[in-house]
């Protein structure tokens, strides 16, 4: 009995939507082009008693692999051996998509090494170098990373499918390495790096970390006015007047009602 009432409602909703979107054929085609447009953003918070903070953005503009990556930070370790302190930076993937907390310090030296944080953020997936190779092979290419306390980095690179998928699935983490040895325990500061015995531990331990989360997806192409609304509200604004608006509202209500009914029924 219930089904016989709700099915017509769902069908009415589908027909109304069909009328609306065929009327907005051009807008629909544009929406398809924007499916690969997205911005992922990470707040970079300090680890290991470091000072400083930063932000990272990854923008895809019509391609699921080609990414413009921007990173800005300030307040990190400034000098190393008389030169700018190198800060290796990576997209980490295939972990849990999060940053480690203090419980990650397994050996109790007061420092979370890159290895100890691995369960949280995973492997180096992409090396965010200033030039040349961006594979994990360049993870410690310390002469091709930004150095010093502050940096403004931007580079457009083509992520491989695995890295791109991890970013789109919100399981990627930005990690900036290289800690000020005066802000960590003496014991940890004197160790050799867990990643390369030729480097001291402070050169490679994580300093800033942030999960990459979707900031905006598939709304408007670059350069369009951003008033904070979604695609329907902006792209189809011209269709929202008069009868079209009434049809659309009815369709959404009917579709929502049908979906809700289906999920309730399905959960039994
Ligand atoms: Cu890293």
TrEMBL record:
Keyword line: Membrane, Signal, Transmembrane, Transmembrane helix
TM segment ranges: 239-259
Taxonomy, superkingdom: Bacteria
Signal peptide feature range: 1-29
Record's protein name: CHRD domain-containing protein
